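Reviewers of the previous submission asked for a worked example of the structure-prediction workflow described in the proposal, so we include one complete record here. The input consisted solely of the amino acid sequence. No template or homolog information was supplied to the procedure at any stage.
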Amino acid sequence: MITAPILARLALAGFALTAATGAAAQKTTSNEPATTEAATSAPVVAEEKPTPYDQRLIRLSEILGSVHYLRNLCVKEPEDVWRRSMQELIDKETADEIKRRERMTAAFNRGYRTFASVYTTCTGPAIVAEQRYRAEGATLASEIVARFGN
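From that input alone, the workflow returned the following structure tokens.
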């Protein structure tokens, strides 16, 4: 079952990428494992159920990390829009699925670190890379919504 706020958030992220370039998640309901009296004190963690768009979300996470680094490298006032968008996507998409959350977080950090190791100042190629990554992210977000949002 698709949750409308998640779809709206992902569509909004895609739209934000569209606007920035001049660029649904389907919430899985998890069954909590049956608890026994011995296990009632242990924290309940939702069973991880991979979605057919997980690889696309991982790529989108990496793109958001890259854009976050590059935008802050090339603007006067640091902005936190891309990191906050990523955090909201992770919160809504992963719920209690720790491994999915870790994979998405790692992808965001990988995207950030990749460009941090290459660019230390804003250059022409850094601006072009940021524009291309925003365009790719917008396309990817639109594809996720179009293909999996129904």
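The mean pLDDT is 76. We consider this example representative of the routine output the project will generate in years two and three.
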